[in-house]
């Protein structure tokens, strides 16, 4: 819906400008009509990509009107700079003075008006899928534990939980519980317009109403498993409730194929482009570290990490901590870590400390997108405490990843377990298009200083 609205806003901006010109500046109409649709497509595509980049299509985005306005402004400025650059080197620049600027001004007003209306308006008119959960025990409690906020449930309305024999009796957050027997399941779903039945029984043998579930499927009701339901709605894998067969059947081996070679070429070319675009920031970072810590202070920090198939490699970063930060041994970084320098706090916030890892990408140790590589000391500990932790080493580590978009910075083993849920989701669903989406959305982290 947002995608269609935003396209309509861009089209409306072009039509308003066309109407104004025909009325007040008829001598410029011919120049404006030339390449009209090419300009329209160019502006539309750039606006949509920039809106993705600043998080305006993140359905679980939690922010107020002021932050929405700032994100719209950033996306429009990025789009304008891109389009203006293309105009400057193509015949598309034959527009009358300030026409493209007027179009973008109307786009800003239109996007702000529509987004504000959607943010503040009543969302009851948006039809959601009505979900009934079969089970009220530990597996069913996954919904409340992983989808606590309203923004986590934008796509569905939870009607209730149906208790089954064998459910864990100690669970009390699976509410409301519905007093219906399994034999009434089909009729209840039809009478209450249920769209999806989620199977979340703690004990399936002899407890699932197979005939009623088949009848539900015959009536067009989607029957789903709780693991797949949570995966679809949250973008993570519930590692506490999956079994070894999941890892066997959902793991794709990495092969030296055409797509693998193409991905390597893409990563190398992108590294070179990013270096050409960011070398001034690299130079400023080097000078800033020298000013703070002294002329002879080291700028680059080298550290061992675990890569593809458990192979160790050296990762390179701009030093953001004190020189003697690990005099007492390896420690995970915390949110209020006093080892971080003043310059380090800034470059970590905007991910500038990661820029030397472009060398790791070119060398083949890493990709742009993948699970973040962990230190050997922590990998050994996590693999003993967290099930399926070593599964993340089946793909190359990355500069950014699905977990970095979906979960805050990790400080302990509990955070590592939570991030693993997103890493496993990425490994299962990884594709070139998903990588592009993650790369574009990483721009939001950099632009709004959400890195650390």
Automatic annotation (TrEMBL):
Alphabetically ordered keywords of this record: Membrane, Transferase, Transmembrane, Transmembrane helix
Topology relative to the membrane: Multi-pass membrane protein
Listed transmembrane segments: 7-25, 37-57, 69-90, 102-120, 265-289
Locations listed in the record: Membrane
InterPro entries: Bact_transf, EPS_sugar_tfrase, Sugar_tfrase_EpsB_2
Domain Bacterial sugar transferase: 265-447
Superkingdom of origin: Bacteria
Family the UniProt entry places it in: Belongs to the bacterial sugar transferase family.
Protein's name according to its UniProt entry: TIGR03013 family PEP-CTERM/XrtA system glycosyltransferase
């Amino acid at each position: 819906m947002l995608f269609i609205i935003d396209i309509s806003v861009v089209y409306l901006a072009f039509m308003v400008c066309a109407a104004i010109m025909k009325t007040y500046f008829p001598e410029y109409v011919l120049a404006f009509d030339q390449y009209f649709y090419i300009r329209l497509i160019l502006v539309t595509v750039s606006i949509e990509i920039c809106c993705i980049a600043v998080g305006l299509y993140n359905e679980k985005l939690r922010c107020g009107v002021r932050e929405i306005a700032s994100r719209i402004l950033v996306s429009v400025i990025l789009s304008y700079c891109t389009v203006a650059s293309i105009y400057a080197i193509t015949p598309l620049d034959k527009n009358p003075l300030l026409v493209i600027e007027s179009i973008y001004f109307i786009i800003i007003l239109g996007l702000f008006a529509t987004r504000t209306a959607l943010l503040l308006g009543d969302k009851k008119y948006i039809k959601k899928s009505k979900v009934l959960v079969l089970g009220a025990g530990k597996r069913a409690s996954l919904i409340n534990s992983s989808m606590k906020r309203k923004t986590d449930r934008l796509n569905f309305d939870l009607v209730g939980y149906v208790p089954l024999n064998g459910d864990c009796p100690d669970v009390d957050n699976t509410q409301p519980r519905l007093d219906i027997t399994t034999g009434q399941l089909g009729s209840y779903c039809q009478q209450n317009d249920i769209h999806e039945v989620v199977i979340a029984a703690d004990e399936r043998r002899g407890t699932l109403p197979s005939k009623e579930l088949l009848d539900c499927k015959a009536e067009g009701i989607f029957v789903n498993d709780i693991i797949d339901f949570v995966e679809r709605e949250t973008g993570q894998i519930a590692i506490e409730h999956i079994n070894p067969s999941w890892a066997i059947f959902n793991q794709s081996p990495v092969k030296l194929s055409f797509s693998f070679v193409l991905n390597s070429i893409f990563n190398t070319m992108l590294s070179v482009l990013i270096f050409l675009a960011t070398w001034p920031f690299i130079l400023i970072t080097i000078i800033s570290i020298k000013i703070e810590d002294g002329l002879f202070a080291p700028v680059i920090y080298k550290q061992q990490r675990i890569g593809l198939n458990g192979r160790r490699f050296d990762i390179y970063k701009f030093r953001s901590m004190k020189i003697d930060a690990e005099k007492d041994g390896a420690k995970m970084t915390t949110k209020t870590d006093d080892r971080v320098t003043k310059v380090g706090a800034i470059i970590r916030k905007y991910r500038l400390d990661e820029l030397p890892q472009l060398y790791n990408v070119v060398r083949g140790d890493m990709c742009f997108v993948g699970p973040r590589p962990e230190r050997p000391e922590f990998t050994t500990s996590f693999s003993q405490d967290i099930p399926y932790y070593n599964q993340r080493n089946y793909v190359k580590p990355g500069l950014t990843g699905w977990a970095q978009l979906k979960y805050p910075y990790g400080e302990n083993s509990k955070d590592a377990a939570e991030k693993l849920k997103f890493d496993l989701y990425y490994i299962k669903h990884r594709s070139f298009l998903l990588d592009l989406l993650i790369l574009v959305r990483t721009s939001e982290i950099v632009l709004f200083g959400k890195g650390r």
